[in-house]
Description:
Layout lengths: L4 H26 L13 H21 L4 H26 L3 E6 L2 E5 L17 E3 L5 E3 L8 E7 L9 E5 L6 E4 L2
Antiparallel strand pairs: 1-2, 1-4, 3-5, 5-6, 6-7
Amino acid sequence: MTTSPAPRHALRGAAVGAGLIAASLDADAREGRPPQPAPRGFTLIELMVVIAVIAIGTAVASLALRDSGADQLAREGERLAALLESARAQSRAAGVPIVWRPVPGGFAWDGLPATADPLPTHWLDTGTAAVGNAPVVLGPDPVIGPQAIVIQRSGADGGVPPVTLATDGLRPFSVEAGS
């Protein structure tokens, strides 16, 4: 039986390759170095790609989550406190009292100077409303009477505890959650 030249050539290449591996192992042994194991594990690029994918997934998930009703109500309270302090400063500058009062769907400002920029008159969230209808007088005097406003959410988020904005007349309005 004769063998074709191709398989004989392939066998000769395999033998030469095995000889090179043996020669390199012998060279390591002759120089006193232990043989190097084959590299295992992940490369830095692979780890960076995985971390980038996780970071993008986390960012998308955090943006997709909505604020809770309590967070929205607290944000409304902080916004209203800032608006009340702005109106209080305008009242002192103009020397006239400014009155804040709740109205259906928002609130109104009475007594704002004509030269002043108009203040917002609506809630950021349509489910927010002030409890009661007592007006808040922001007088021109530096010290006003103690006053408070209670805001709450209605509708599906009606179970959220109300938020109270209060001042003792000297300090700025502050937000107290869960009152």
